[in-house]
Write a structure and sequence with these properties.
Elements: E1 19-23, H1 29-40, E2 51-55, E3 64-68, H2 71-81, E4 84-86, E5 92-94, H3 116-128, E6 137-138, E7 141-145, H4 152-158, E8 162-167, H5 171-181, H6 192-199, H7 201-229, H8 235-267, E9 286-289, E10 296-299, H9 302-345, H10 348-353, H11 356-382, H12 388-425
Antiparallel strand pairs: 1-3, 1-8, 2-3, 4-5, 6-7, 9-10
Helix pairs in contact: 2-3, 6-7, 7-8, 9-11, 9-12, 11-12
Length: about 425
């Protein structure tokens, strides 16, 4: 970046609120003054260099604050987070403020160059990366300890001082989106580009997949109508239908991969520079200099992280998997007891008892999934991953393995163990 952050003026007459910060009621004045000062302070002083204004309620309470940024600040923030934009030669490149004139649709007075979702993402990123410099605690709250490199927003959240941070709606833009999305009588495709501009790429991809999958189900629905209407005794026809299902599911997934790549490339998320990804808010460590970017950020030993993963997290996951299998065997024992009880009594009550083990097991599965999800989030956060992508990958792996075994192990047990035992007995 050729320009220095020092030339950026945070004062702007046309203040556009983008993000809302809600502090706890009764937050001390010195805490509010310190936090708001860090938000508006210059980057060189460890601040976010944003704009903030209190939202005065009817009762006079000022615990809600609106956060925005000048157009220039947002452009510099776009370079910091590595947003990819389309250039005049139709190529996609990471945005840099020094070469801003080479990007398509850019103009100094064009405030729509960055979408609303991108502006809110930049502000959220800057707030989450506010880190303590030489503070030992949050002013006014000695119990809320700080150390160099600790995320200020995360400490405020865990201490209950900061209630929540969320993006703000733009009613005029939302009305336009509602009209083009579902307010029209004419049936058509969803305005995915407009959804992406307002809600972001993640939400747009979600609705894009729903639209694609809905249309992809039409061939299967048409072919499946005869199978639903007529009960054929020739089971070869059902084998053909099952084979077509298998081929169809493979094809639609491959086609979706292509469509997804087209959308993400057009929106600039496919080429975002992950190697320069900023540390996630929950990452903590001693302040140091990143040898790649040259920026000051927390540093944590990868050896310590690996020790936590393999000596604590991995044994815990294995223990949970064993406990899940143990609960499954208890369920089969209960089911066998219910069958024996029904054979002995042959009553309405015994008939109802046949469903009790399945109901109990279904409830236990849901409870175990929720408890394990909480434990997995705690462990993954405790592992102290530097990047958000790494954090999500480890969390998904933990949750996916347990949920798959916890929810579907009984099916495999019935298919490959009980069924084989039954055949051997015959």
């Amino acid at each position: 970046m050729v320009e220095s952050w020092s030339f950026l003026d945070t004062a702007e007459s046309n203040f556009r609120p983008l993000v809302v910060i809600e502090l706890a009621k009764g937050t001390k004045e010195e805490t509010i003054e310190w936090f708001t000062k860090r938000i508006v302070d210059k980057k060189a002083n460890g601040g976010a260099q944003l704009l903030i204004k209190p939202l005065v309620m009817e009762n006079g309470v000022e615990n809600i604050y609106l956060v925005g940024a000048s157009h220039l600040r947002l452009l510099l923030g776009a370079e910091t987070v590595g947003l990819v934009k389309e250039c005049s030669d139709n190529s996609m490149r990471a945005f840099t403020y020094s070469s801003r004139k080479t990007f398509k649709h850019f103009a100094d007075d064009n405030h729509d160059f960055l979408t609303m979702a991108e502006c809110q993402y930049i502000i959220k990123h800057e707030l989450e990366n506010l880190r303590a410099k030489d503070e030992k605690m949050i002013p006014g709250y000695p119990q809320a300890k700080l150390y160099p490199g600790k995320s200020i927003v995360r400490r405020l959240l865990t201490s209950g001082i900061l209630v929540q941070i969320f993006p703000l709606h733009d009613r005029e833009e939302l009305k336009k989106l509602c009209h083009s999305w579902y307010g029209r009588v004419k049936i058509g495709y969803q305005p995915l580009d407009d959804i992406r501009c307002y809600f972001g790429e993640t939400i747009a991809l979600y609705f894009g997949f729903l639209e694609y999958f809905t249309f992809a189900l039409i061939p299967m629905a048409v072919i499946g109508i005869p199978y639903y209407m007529f009960a054929w005794e020739d089971y070869d026809k059902y084998v053909m239908f099952a084979t077509f299902n298998l081929l169809w599911s493979t094809v639609i997934l491959e086609v979706w991969k292509r469509i997804c790549a087209i959308l993400t490339y057009r929106w600039g998320t496919l080429l975002m520079k992950r190697q320069f990804e900023e540390p996630r808010p929950g990452f903590h460590g001693v302040l140091g200099i990143n040898p790649v970017t040259g920026r000051e950020e927390p540093v944590y030993s990868s050896i310590k992280r690996q020790l936590r993963i393999y000596l604590v997290s991995l044994p815990f996951v294995c223990l949970c998997l064993y406990f899940s299998l143990y609960v499954m065997m208890i369920y089969f024992d209960l089911e066998q007891w219910a069958l024996d009880y029904h054979k002995e009594n042959e009553s309405n009550f015994s008939s109802l008892m046949l469903y009790v083990p399945s109901i109990i097991y279904a409830v236990v599965i849901e409870i175990m999934n929720r408890i394990y999800r909480y434990a997995a989030e705690f462990l993954t956060s405790w592992e102290n991953h530097r990047l958000e992508s790494s954090y999500q990958n480890h969390l998904i792996l933990k949750v996916l393995v347990f949920n798959f075994l916890n929810c579907f192990a009984s099916l495999f047990y019935i298919a490959f163990v009980l069924f084989d035992m039954k055949l051997l007995r015959q």
